[in-house]
């Protein structure tokens, strides 16, 4: 089933289509956000903000992309925005209450950090999987298994210089595909 008619109706400002989308996706999006935050209050806030954003930016919805993917992308970016705001708010409160006292990270900061680390790890795995076979193996052996260049060269019957070249190319590919890598 195509989402194009629903997306077209949303883009034209059809409130009935929006209500249908809200009722169809609210439980799924709420569950996703609750799983990430472990806070019913924050999950409800984020879901409400996500659907407000979806309505506000409805004209930019892409009819060629599944509605589910677009709804969850809005929810995910809304969650990240809220976690950042909460982390800043928490940091400012901590600084104001205990000037000069070392404080541990708040649960919100921890959740944001875990989410960002997980997304980065997934993106790295995706880029590594797109590498040519030998480069992929060399990189995995070096970075994921902790093997030295010499050990990799011996295991694959290639020269250490070839291992170095594969690692250099892999890192170049990662930097090209992942900003700030």
UniProtKB/TrEMBL annotation:
Q: Name one GO molecular function term.
A: sigma factor activity
Q: Which Pfam families match?
A: Sigma70_r2 (PF04542), Sigma70_r4_2 (PF08281)
Q: Is Transcription regulation among this UniProt entry's keywords?
A: yes
Q: Which domain of life is it from?
A: Bacteria
What region holds the RNA polymerase sigma factor 70 region 4 type domain? 122-174
For this UniProt record, the keywords arranged alphabetically read as follows: Sigma factor, Transcription, Transcription regulation
CDD domains linked: Sigma70_r4
Ranges for domain RNA polymerase sigma-70 region come to 22-87
- What is a biological process (GO) this protein takes part in? DNA-templated transcription initiation
Instruction: Report the family membership.
Output: Belongs to the sigma-70 factor family. ECF subfamily.
Protein name per UniProt: RNA polymerase sigma-70 factor (ECF subfamily)
Please report the organism this UniProt entry assigns to the protein. Dinghuibacter silviterrae
């Amino acid at each position: 089933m195509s989402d194009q008619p629903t997306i077209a109706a949303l883009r034209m400002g059809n409130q009935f289509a929006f209500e249908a989308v809200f009722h169809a996706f609210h439980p799924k999006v709420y569950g996703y956000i609750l799983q990430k935050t472990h806070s019913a209050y924050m999950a409800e806030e984020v879901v409400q903000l996500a659907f407000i954003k979806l309505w506000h930016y409805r004209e930019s919805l892409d009819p060629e992309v599944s509605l589910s993917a677009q709804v969850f992308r809005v929810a995910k970016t809304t969650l990240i925005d809220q976690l950042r705001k909460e982390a800043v708010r928490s940091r400012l409160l901590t600084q104001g209450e205990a000037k000069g006292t070392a404080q541990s990270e708040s649960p919100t900061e921890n959740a944001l950090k875990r989410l960002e680390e997980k997304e980065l790890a997934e993106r790295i795995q995706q880029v590594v999987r797109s590498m040519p076979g030998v480069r992929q193996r060399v990189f995995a052996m070096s970075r994921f298994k902790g093997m030295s260049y010499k050990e990799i060269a011996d295991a694959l019957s290639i020269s250490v210089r070839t291992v170095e070249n594969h690692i250099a190319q892999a890192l170049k590919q990662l930097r090209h595909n992942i900003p700030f890598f």
